[in-house]
Amino acid sequence: MTRPARALDDARSDGPARDTDDAARETAGAARDPVGPGSRPLADPPTARVAALLERRLEAGGRFFAAEADRTAALCHRMAERFARGGRLVALGRSAAARSDARHVAVEFVHPVIVGKRALPALGLAAEGGPLDLQADLLLEPDDIVIGFGLDGSRDEDAERQPTDADAHGTLRAGQAADAAETRRALDIATGRGCLAIDYGGGDAEWSFGVPSSDPFVRQEIAETHYHLLWELVHVFFEHRGLLEGRTARTPHDPGDSRFLYPFLGERESDLDAVLGDVRASVVMKAEEVDALRRQTLEDGAGTLVAAAADLRDRFERGATLLAFGNGGSATDAMDVVADLRLPPHGWPSRPALDLTADSAILSAIANDIGTDALFSRQIIAYGREGDVALALSTSGDSRNVIRALEEARKRGLSTLAFVGYDGGRVAAEGLADHIVVTRSEHIPRIQEAQASAVHVLRELVEREADPAVRGERS
To answer: What is the CATH number of the domain that holds 436?
Structure first.
C-alpha cells in the first residue's frame, strides 16, 4: 500500500492523506496492538489517571455516535443539498475555545487534506470581527449552513465546581454566559433567514447535538470528530446528483476498483435509503477508529504525558510562558491549547501562553519576506526565553517550519513538546523535542482528534497532580 506524500513545503497543512476505509482499518488495528517503548499497562497513579481519562472519552464517544449516526447521515445529505445550491458553511465562535473550532471546521472545508475531496466554501466568524449577531446579520444567506460553537460553556455543572469566592472565575463564568447568548442570537438570525443551523449542545438549532459528558474537554473532542465526519461524508452525496433536491440524476457512478471501499457509490441515483444506511455505517466505523487511535495515543504516550505535565507545572511555577504552534488544522489546535491554558475550566489557575499562529500581520510578513519555513522560528527568537516551553503540533512530524522552530527553541533553552502523527516523522526520528507523543496513523482528521485528547489530558495532568484538592475525578 503506497504511503501518501507528506507536504513538507506547505505551511497551510501537513499534507494529503487517504480517505480509504482499509487505511483506517490498518490504523485501528495498530491502535489495538500498540507498539513501542511507551506501551505498557497504565498502573501507577499518574498513568492510571490517564487510563481513567481515556475511558471517559471512549464511553462518551460510544454513546454519542451510536445515538447520532442516523441523524449525522441525514445531516450530510441536507448539507450536500445546500452546497449544491451555492450555499456556504459559516462557523461561529465567540469564546477563545469556540473560535478554535470555528477556524478548524472552516479550514477543513476550504482546504481539504484528503486526496480527491473538493474545496467547499466555508467561513469562520469569531470575536475579532465584531459581535457575532452583527456579523451574522450582515453576511448570512438563506442557503448557508451555520454551526454555532460555545453554547455549552456556562453549563451549571461546570460553574458549580468553580470557587464561588474567586472574582476572576466569577467574571469568567459571566463572560461565558455572554458569549453563549451572543452565539444564540446569531443562530436565531440564521434560522430566521432560512439557513440550516447546527450546534453542539446548549442551543435550540434544528440540528443540535448534545455530547453526553459534563467534561468540556470531552465535549470538544467529540464535536471535533463529528464535524470532521460531516466534512468527510458530505462528499458522498455529490456522487449522487439525483439525491440532491433540485438536481438532475446522471448515470450512476462506477467506483471501479474502489467499490469494496465505498460500495454505496455504485447505488442507483434514486436509492436514498441505501446511501443513508451506508453513510450511517461509515459514521459508526470511523468513530470506532478514532476511539482505537485515542487508546493507542494515550496508552503509548502515558509516561510521556505525565513527565511533560510535571515539566510544564514546574516551569509555570517558575514563571514560564508556553508558545504553541502548528499549520492548518494543527494551527487551530494550537489556538485551543492557548485558550485552555489562559481560560481553563473547573477553577484551575490561568497559565501564560502565546499562540504563534494568531497574528496574520506577523505571519504574512514573515512568509512574504523570508518564507514559510521561518513562520514560527522567527517568533521563537522574538518571544522565547530560557525556561519557556515550545509546544508543536504536526500531523506529519515533517513540517519544516515546525522543525525549525523546535531547533530554535532548543538553542535558546526552551523545553520542547511535540504531538505528531504518522510514524513521528523527523521530529521523532531525530529526537527534536524533549517530550514526543506519536499518534500512529496516516489519516489526518483522526490524528487531530486523538491529538486533541492527548493535549487535553496533558492540561488536566498539570493541574490535578499539582493540587491534591482537585485530584477527585469528575463525572
So the answer is: 3.40.50.10490
Residue (of 333, 256, 296) closest to 99 by Cα position: 333
In this structure, the answer to whether residues 312 and 267 fall within a common structural domain is no
Give the total number of structural domains in the chain: 2
With CA atoms as reference, report the closest residue to 205 among 215, 195, 218, 219: 195
Is the Cβ–Cβ distance between 114 and 19 less than 8 Å? yes
Express each pLDDT in 275-311 by its tens digit: 999 999 999 999 999 999 999 999 999 999 999 999 9
Pseudo-torsion of CA 348, 417, 337, 444, nearest 10°? -140
Q: Which among 241, 250, 248 has a CA at the least distance from the CA of 275?
A: 241
Where is the domain boundary, 242, 265, 289?
289
Segment 11-41, tens digit of pLDDT: 334 443 433 333 333 333 333 333 333 444 4
Question: 136 and 193 share a domain?
Answer: yes
pTM exceeds cut of 0.85? no
Q: Tell me the C-alpha distance between 185 and 398, whole Å.
A: 42
Q: What is the pLDDT of residues 437-459, one digit of tens each?
A: 999 999 999 999 999 999 999 99
Structural domain range at position 203: 53-289
- Dihedral of the CA atoms 47, 50, 56, 62 (nearest 10)? -100
Q: Is the dihedral of CA 403, 112, 363, 358 positive or negative?
A: negative
- Residue 184 belongs to what H/E stretch? helix 167-192
